[in-house]
Amino acid sequence: KERIEPKKARVPNPGILAVRVANEEEKQMLLASDTRKFFTEPHCNGYPAVMVRLAEIEYDEMAELLNEAWRCQAPRKVVEDFDKSG
Q: Is the pLDDT assigned to residue 44 strictly greater than 90?
């Protein structure tokens, strides 16, 4: 969701996805790397996530972001078992 007008409710935007990142350092690195792809909003301050413009990101890069998002949220044992299986 995004806020189109100040002080109005956020509205769904199918062209944007919020993605969890490992920490604030990674968030800042992504934001600095490409402002066409990655951005944030004030309500995300202090939260390890970035907003991604889907039309601007390549499939492989998005797949890597989603993989890393899963890894930073999944239980360690699940990640270890997944790594062993692949």
A: no
